[in-house]
Amino acid sequence: MPMPTNKVSPISPIKASSVNHWDYETDVAVIGCGGAGACAAISAHDAGSRVLIFELASGIGGSTTLSSAEVYLGGGTRVQKATGHRDTKRAMTDFLTAAAGPQADKAKIVAYVAGSTDHFDWLVEQGVVFKDSEYPHRAIMALTDDCLLYTGGENAHPYNKLAPPAPRGHNLKVVGDNGGPLLMKTLGAKIDEKSIPVELNSRALALIVDDSDDQQSVIGVQVRIDMQERYVKARSGVILASGGFVMNDQMVKQYAPELTRCTVPIGNPGDTGSGILMGMGVGGAAINMHEGFVSLPFYPPASLTYGIFINSQGQRFVNEDSYHGRVGAFILRETGGPVYLVLAVEDYGKYETESYLNADVAATAESIVELESDLNLPPGELQATMSDYNKHAKAGNDELFHKDPVWLKPLEPPFVALDVTPGRGAFYPYFTLGGLDTLPTGEVLKASGDVITGLYAVGRTACGIPRRGEGYASGMSVGDATFTGRQAGMAASTRTTT
Amino acid sequence: MPMPTNKVSPISPIKASSVNHWDYETDVAVIGCGGAGACAAISAHDAGSRVLIFELASGIGGSTTLSSAEVYLGGGTRVQKATGHRDTKRAMTDFLTAAAGPQADKAKIVAYVAGSTDHFDWLVEQGVVFKDSEYPHRAIMALTDDCLLYTGGENAHPYNKLAPPAPRGHNLKVVGDNGGPLLMKTLGAKIDEKSIPVELNSRALALIVDDSDDQQSVIGVQVRIDMQERYVKARSGVILASGGFVMNDQMVKQYAPELTRCTVPIGNPGDTGSGILMGMGVGGAAINMHEGFVSLPFYPPASLTYGIFINSQGQRFVNEDSYHGRVGAFILRETGGPVYLVLAVEDYGKYETESYLNADVAATAESIVELESDLNLPPGELQATMSDYNKHAKAGNDELFHKDPVWLKPLEPPFVALDVTPGRGAFYPYFTLGGLDTLPTGEVLKASGDVITGLYAVGRTACGIPRRGEGYASGMSVGDATFTGRQAGMAASTRTTT
């Protein structure tokens, strides 16, 4: 009595023996042209391969173009040195390892850190401009054309104890939140300059495997262009750079059910997991699929950092100077009831007109007693928390959560409380962090650890450097995508030339 | 430049075309003879199939025989009725759904609840004896021969608000922690009585698939007996009942890295994930692999429930009358530093000689001020927590975490604090909850939701009713294992008779 199921299916490959003719022949086929695909294509081309890019949308850019693109790099980049930030490979390794926790892929971290300054230089060679300056504010992104900023709470507890802090988010030299578009415009210009063909409006449908070969190597891909199925032979390999699966509701529900508590998927409409599903269809292992980036982007204004997050016991539960993604991940663990951000009105601003995070103002009050009562908190709890917090703030020492003294000041009435309970309206953007298991080269692995010959996955189609919400840093995904794109482009090309 | 990997591999199947002869021919082959395998075998036999059981160990029992076997059943069993506990299918469904959270498999819950009283009756028919009585203590297991006890915190916050509480743990009529051995002895006697052959010391090596068939149906299994490979033809199907993967360190590290923070794997040495890996090898989807049961079994003595768990901020974080598994799961989330169980010495007993949980006594003190200082907690925090707790305890209302009033009493000096920080010695048993995705019939599913013809997985080889540590209840796994074993035995047998 089989029951109906409603699962997202891996996409089965096509057998080469059933392909009558090839519409395209190339060395490397790149599926998707966001940051990962663009870098894969450029690198494969530069390594001597013929490259074809197939992009689902009517323009290149992918989710990278929607991002702020604060490329996460370190270990002593040109900008880090120019701004006097001493960073080391060791410090960066320690941070990335702590951030990924038990899910850390050590080989990937080693490769990423070792190649980090080189990757910076390579981006510059492609025409990406970084100013030798820093943006010394607590912000989710730089709104000036300044470059370097802390994007992962490296300077906040607990990471500041685990590794010497250094800012590693590298914002492009552009005013406003325009790093992503500029990065992709720059990479797109390079693709044009190198005359790498890009087929837009092309939907990859299935991988093609060599069924005359026991290994079932990937040797091509079927794409749909102009309503017709076309067959692409890729002698050196297919690079899947088609994003994550945040836009596929059923797939999120099936693989990352906790993320369904968030509100706004971050990505482009093509982030439907198709690359992951094609990889799974040829035996690729999808790993860490339950994890995602989750955020409550509650700053700027940075002054909101002076506030305290409280749970329904009236307790604080995180240092509020943490990265917004870490705060989001910790809030999701507070399953006991409502969660509020409590602020002094002087730090909030005009609550009558000023709205943050799409969250409701749950209460305003002239005293903590009144606020506590209006929020229906257990009597005395918020009073105790606040009195304690203010005492520590005065002393400049948050003995509980180790918030940095620069964000400590006693909170004085009048007060305002924002309701940031997940599911009650507050803005919780999210995207997925699970994907195909790969080597640092981008080669896709079976669950056995065996490589699938001819198949590469990069960016969010793979499970890369960013592994969990509580340890995410802005720029990690664009950094990982552009870096892994390059590695896969080079790795595939070693098959072209041999 | 492929790098060495150290992954646990799915086990590839053998092609039937390469099998020269069959050493055994049967309808149904059952791999593993714990609770799940025994029930599968009995049911398949009773449905008219020829059955062969292959068991790795030199005796039957599996992990069920190591368990307390408080079979989790409800919706109005004979014992529930006799003891005056009104339980309903609706209440049981609501509890199981809340316990599994976003990971809940609704079809499985529906089937389990619908079949629950029948499953009780079936176990009785097999010779399992349950006394019409209850064990009305807060305990992890009944130490008398009484039957019914609360084993999942149904009567504690938050579940008592989400569903009318009823005890559903059914302890067998036997004194001491001997339910598991008795259950397996009883089922084993039934297997003998029915003359179902059991091959002991038999290691299943690989599934055998029909390679003449596009579907690659499972039609047998290769086993090693007496150092020789034997080929078993199973016309109706192979039922994998070989446990979870808690004894496979590398597999736990790879799939459930958070569990590596626990100390003692619970299971028999055969719980190496071989059934899951064989299922994966024929395309079965392994799901929910990151989840596990985690426990801090801090009661009995029940008097320890009068204490409070505090984190390194001196805060409480859970109602201490929760099920020990829920407490364990919540402690694992407290990643900010040490975790203590703080008690009045009168509830603890003789701390000079009495040791619990293998945990160190971190401090004893005549006052909270002294205790707080000895534990290096932020000054004032434990004092505030304790004063607040005692106030609420006096009032009989734990406004913060809703601990039941029966477990509330003001804590008075002298005090003792047990260090229960994970990794510092305290006993954290654990086992895995991820496994093959199956239909309620036990049919193994591919990631696509398609059934793998001829393959069934039951008990902890499948991902069943218990889905996450914070919502586990004792008896869920034995309940699920014996129930799903029966369903698979019956389902496979429909193929025998058609």
Provide an overview of this structure.
2 copies of one chain form a homodimer. Chain A is an alpha/beta fold. Chain A folds into 2 domains: 8-292 and 431-498, 3-Layer(bba) Sandwich (FAD/NAD(P)-binding domain); 302-419, Flavocytochrome C3, Chain A, domain 1, CATH 3.90.700.10. Chain A is built from 14 helices and 21 strands. The first copy, chain A, has helices spanning 35-46, 78-82, 89-100, 106-114, 116-125, 159-162, 179-193, 249-255, 274-281, 324-333, 345-348, 368-374, 381-395, 476-496; strands at 14-15, 24-31, 51-54, 71-72, 148-149, 169-170, 198-199, 202-209, 218-225, 228-240, 264-265, 286-287, 292-294, 308-310, 340-344, 360-365, 415-419, 429-432, 435-436, 443-445, 451-457. In chain A, the strands form 5 sheets. In chain A, strands 1, 2, 3, 7, 8, 9, 10, 20 and 21 form a 9-stranded mixed beta sheet that branches. In chain A, α1 (35-46) runs parallel beside α7 (179-193) and α12 crosses α13 (381-395). Chain A is elongated, with a radius of gyration of 24 Å. The model of chain A has no long low-confidence stretch (mean pLDDT 95). Chains A and B meet through α13 of A and α13 of B.
Helix tally of chain A equals: 14
Distance between the termini of chain A: 53 Å
What's the architecture of the largest domain in chain A in CATH terms?
Answer: 3-Layer(bba) Sandwich
CA-atom Rg of chain A in angstroms: 24 Å
> What count of domains describes the coordinates of chain A?
2
Largest interface: A-B, 48 and 48 residues
What does the overall shape of chain A look like?
elongated
The helix fraction of chain A, in percent, is 25-40%
Instruction: Please state the average pLDDT score of chain A.
Output: 95
Strand content of chain A: 15-25%
Q: What is the assembly state of the chains in this entry?
A: homodimer
Under CATH, the topology of the largest domain in chain A is which?
A: FAD/NAD(P)-binding domain
- What structural class results from the helix and strand content of chain A? alpha/beta
Main β sheet profile of chain A: 9 strands, mixed
